[in-house]
Amino acid sequence: MHESVVAQMVVSGALMGLVYALIAYGFQLTYSTSKSINFGQGELVMVSAFICLSILNFGIPYWLMVPLGLLCGSLLGLFVERAGVRLALEQKSEGWILLTIIIGLLFFSASENIWGRDDRPFPTPISSEAIQLFGISVTPVEISIAAGVFLIMGMIELFKRKTLLGKAFEAVSADRDAAELMGISATRTVMLSYSLSGMVAALAGILVAPITTVGPTMASALVLKAFSVAVVAGLDSGFGVVLIGLFLGALESLTSYYVGSGWREAPGLILLILALAVRPTGVFGKAQIRKV
Amino acid sequence: MKKAIITTLLFGMVVTQAFAADVIKIAITGPFTGGSAPMGASMRDGAKLAISEINAAGGISIGGKMMKFDVTERDDEAKNERGALIAQELASMSDLSGIIGSVNTGVVLAGDKHFQEKGITKIITPAAGSASMTQWSKAGVKDNSIFRFAAHDGIQAAMVVEEAINRKLLKVALFYDSTNYGVSGRDDMLDQIKKQGDKLQVVATEKFNIGDKDMTAQLLRAKNSGAQAILIWGIGPELAAIANGMAKIAIKAPLIGGWPLSMSNFLDNAGKNGNGTMMPQTFIEEPITPKAKAFIQGYHKAYKVTRIPSPVSAAQGYDAVYIFAAAVKQAQSTDTHKIKEALEDLKEPVKGVIATWQKPYSKWDPANYDTHEAFRRDQVVMGMVKDGHVVFANDADRQRLTKSATEVKGKKAK
């Protein structure tokens, strides 16, 4: 009985944790190439979910909607890069912080005006009937979240390692100036990283929408957790983000079971403070040597 | 030149004065967007349906002059600070006759003091949290311009606890959200359990936040502590997350709780997992009386829907306007203070869609807040979710209401 409770809590929490990890992975993608992140990532998740809902409402079947939604997500990512990040990076300023926040707010108000402020159910062909796996109840929707997260992260990591374009991506991440000297366009690579990050956001939107319902504030709680995950894990490693995401999710649900539901958020915050105090670069981060 | 300006100003004042005197200005406030919107928007639409009926009939005769209602709407977004700002704004309007609305207890607590200070008449509907009225008894105010037209949580909690006892359940888990409404609902339930003879043992008390999606931890605690029912006080789509979570970890215990369980965003997001959920209701969307039939059809037609998002809110908004209108008529004035006095002593019964209201309010007594509460236990029934609709949980209630309506109809034909 007791083990099954722990297992159930760990699995339920870890599945939510994977969503945090997926959003945090979106931060990691752009940070590695450009040392900038999109502070409006949560709004990107939300807008993509709304767009996907509209696509479904046009009568387009679910499985066709998924690639269309991902495409819209990457276009939105490109828009963020062009409008909010590129100029700031060219001028070596930190203006992207404010600009990405502003673009996020713009998305937020736009979707409030276009789609309204209500929370709407997101239809999905994947069943939310619980099934039993080794004595643990999970719903196929939750399994689809895990599958989707691992699939997209695996594909992006493979792409980075196995293709020429991906290697350029890694080169820019490792050393932007050296990569430019080798003839790799850093601007293009940053564009690529933002469009991948937008795609990841769109996938996060599609995956969580059946659970969170679609509304303008659907991602605001998730994105805060994703920030914690990104900071605790460090922004250098995609797999680090997944591990910390799983860990944080499981920890949250164990805390709310054993300590009390009012304490749910506490361990994440304690972890965040500890990480900042003990390992400011993150658990999986690499210390950077700045040459002056 | 100067003279011309003064004349214009004077003339302008006279004109606005004349305009102001021709209408009864009332404000409707509530959350028209966001998680509480089904209640806020239904209340507003129900109230506006009543207003358009009154206006279409020419308005209310005051001193031989027919006056129509003029409505100001304000969306408080269910946010306390927004509610406080709106209350300040409305309280500063000199010609406002009254206010109808508020869904969220927190918003009421943040804003109503501005109305009370100036003695502006407000009918709270459908916010049910006990604190909305008990705050005035606790403060011991001598005179109160705040009335409520909703089955307050005291009544609702009593019914929820009663239901659990009637079903011979012994162990219950209390769930509540972290808003003012949720916390005060939990206290009301604990209170009622004690009052009804401590027959229920509370084996788990679990909190959740607005926006929480994964309720597995709380539900597992309830399940493992052997709870036979989940009594819940919450607002918004989180209730659906609980119903879905219960299905996921196979909790068969019934879900019984406050009336927001009848909201469309619970019914839609919980789907068939919502079936069997019970909650106190003041109005069920079933055309059991001619008046109810006319109201439901009128609402569907006016707002192009096939289901009222929150029938309770819509019906309460509708009846609250008729009660307010009756007070205006009796006071023969648009002055908010005179309307308050009339409300405390309504001479004529008001025919509403929920009931025929005989003297719903009386002179405020700080020792007894029921003086400004319109609803009593017998105007509230248990509702039950069935395939996305709320129906009567007990057929006896249905028959009782049908019968009482025909009796009244016989007495007072229009």
Fold and architecture overview:
The complex is a heterodimer of chains A (292) and B (414). The longest helix of chain A has 33 residues, at 2-34. Chain A is built from eleven helices and two strands. Chain A is mainly α. Chain A has a single domain, classed as ABC transporter involved in vitamin B12 uptake, BtuC (Orthogonal Bundle). A two-stranded antiparallel ribbon of chain A has the order 1-2. In chain B, helix 2 (37-56) crosses helix 12, helix 6 (153-166) packs across helix 7 (180-195) and helix 12 (311-331) crosses helix 13. The chains are: A mainly alpha (292), B alpha/beta (414). Chain A binds chain B through residues 1, 5, 8-9, 12-13, 16, 112, 116-119, 121, 128-130, 137-139, 211-213, 215, 217, 220-221, 253-254, 256-257, 260-262, 264, and chain B through 33-35, 37, 77, 178, 206-209, 211-214, 216-218, 220-221, 224, 237, 240, 244, 247-250, 265, 268-269.
Helix-and-strand structural type of chain B: alpha/beta
Overall CATH architecture of the largest domain in chain B:
3-Layer(aba) Sandwich
Strand segment count of chain A: 2
Beta-strand content of chain B = 15-25%
N/C terminus separation of chain B: 59 Å
Number of helices of chain A: 11
Strand ordering within the main sheet of chain A = 1-2
User: CATH topology of the largest domain in chain B, which one?
Assistant: Rossmann fold
Into how many domains do the coordinates of chain A divide? 1
Largest interface, chains and sizes: A-B, 34 and 30 residues
Helix/strand order of chain A, N-terminal first: HHHHEEHHHHHHH
Reading off the top of the CATH hierarchy, the class of the largest domain in chain B is best stated as Alpha Beta
Number of strands of chain B: 15
**Gap between N and C termini of chain A, in Å?**
59 Å
Subunit organisation of the chains: heterodimer
Radius of gyration of chain B: 22 Å
- Count of individual helical segments of chain B: 14
